[in-house]
Design brief:
By secondary structure, the protein is an alpha/beta fold. It has 2 domains: 123 residues, Aspartate Aminotransferase, domain 1, CATH 3.90.1150.10; 231 residues, Aspartate Aminotransferase, domain 2 (3-Layer(aba) Sandwich), CATH 3.40.640.10. It is built from 15 helices and 14 strands. Helix 6 links the parallel strand 5 and strand 6. It is globular. The termini are far apart.
Length: 391
């Protein structure tokens, strides 16, 4: 080990770049949470009213899910021990995939450990060189990374600009094509026009991959998600959903035509070469799907809270983006001003995360207000009053 007090050049370069992140208001920090996910959190030893999770139905600390996880651990242990294709695919995993397929009304489902992994699996398994991905410019990072990893041509169209997308599709001579979009955009909360996107997929012989991380459990009849919200059914549709947001547990799934799912099972590297998620989680998720299916009252309460927040902040000097979902972005613009407002709310015991580039475009830093069915109207009113006092 070197005894020199000076940093090696490679470390010195990193230190300079970290200093630049701090200067530009872009450096991120972790904060330690004690206790379960809840509207009221203890963070770094201080109590907060939190609008910072994706637990949209308030299931992450539901007693039935805790009991199911404990039962799953007693039945299956705490680890799967191997990948799904070796010896890690348990009865719980199989039951969850069957249950999800029936719930979604789609032919077949494949489960993954995370949504990021699921998207990294789909696009490179279906596309390669001489193929093309057409992606909304505000897609989640995992869709961007998956497109790059596939080595297909990567075309990005302006957010929700269907005319630009159609021009790109019409000009493409790619062997295979795939349109990739968030179904509910994670930082803006708006919903993609999936029927129109599917029409373009059918016209130009393309797949449509919809990342429904923020729609599953919340939108559509009985929380079946964005595709059900629009009543879509097509063999071209590939639906990815996560199980750690509205479902309250962890993991993800890809659903669609049985042949496409079988191809992923055979060729998707993040599926083949990853140890399967603990079966106890799949066991708990069987109960989570029941709670989602029976969760109309939770969804109605959530929608009422969204309306209450939007009405209350109508007079704020910072605009809320047009969103009818649980994601309510309050766009402030400047990175440092956004951090100032975030800190001012922190000082009042209210936690709303500051979102800055590269997660959002430059000049569009914001507070990302995340609502949950576990919030009360009084808690939303407290947030509204605190924000209005800062404007």
């Amino acid at each position: 080990m070197s005894s020199s007090a000076e940093s090696p050049p490679a470390l010195a370069a990193l230190e300079a770049e970290l200093s630049a992140l701090t200067r530009d208001g872009l450096r991120r920090t972790r904060r330690v949470v004690d206790g379960p996910c809840s509207p009221e959190l203890e963070i770094d030893g201080k109590r907060y009213l939190a609008f910072a999770s994706n637990d949209y139905l308030g299931l992450a600390n539901h007693p039935d899910l805790i009991a199911a996880a404990q039962e799953g651990a007693a039945r299956y242990g705490v680890g799967s021990g191997a990948s799904h294709l070796v010896s890690g695919h348990s009865r719980a995993h199989q039951m969850l995939e069957t249950r999800l397929a029936a719930f979604l009304g789609l032919p077949r489902v494949l489960t993954f450990s995370t949504g990021y992994m699921a998207n990294l699996a789909v696009i490179p398994a279906l596309l390669g060189r001489h193929d093309a991905v057409f992606a909304d410019r505000l897609n989640h990072a995992c869709l961007v990374d998956a497109a790059i990893l596939s080595r297909a041509d990567h075309h990005r169209y302006p957010h929700l600009d269907l005319a630009a997308l159609e021009r790109q599709l019409a000009q493409s001579t790619a062997r295979r094509k795939l349109i990739a979009t968030d179904a509910v955009f994670s930082m803006d909360g708006d919903i993609a026009p999936l029927p129109e996107l599917l029409r373009l997929a059918e016209t130009y012989d393309a797949w449509l991959l919809a990342d429904d991380a923020h729609g599953f459990g919340v939108l559509g009849p009985q929380g079946r998600g964005s595709a059900a919200h629009f009543g879509l059914d097509s063999p071209r549709l590939i639906l990815m959903g996560t199980l750690g947001k509205a479902a309250g547990v962890a993991g993800a799934f890809v659903a669609g035509h049985a042949t496409m799912i079988e191809w992923l099972l055979q060729r998707a590297r993040p599926y083949i070469f990853t140890t399967a998620a603990p079966p106890l989680l799949a066991h708990a998720l069987l109960i989570a799907i029941d709670l989602i299916e029976q969760g109309d009252a939770r969804r109605a309460h959530l929608m009422a809270l969204i309306g209450r927040l939007r009405a209350g902040l109508d007079a704020a000097c910072w605009p809320l983006r047009a969103s009818s979902t649980a994601i309510q972005p309050l766009v402030i613009g400047d990175n440092h001003e956004t951090l100032r407002v975030c800190a001012a709310l922190d000082a009042q015991g209210i936690r709303v995360p500051a979102i800055r580039p590269p997660t959002v475009p430059t000049g569009e830093a914001r507070l990302r207000v995340s609502l949950s069915a576990a919030h009360s109207p009084q808690q939303v009113d407290r947030l509204v009053a605190a924000i209005l006092a800062l404007t």
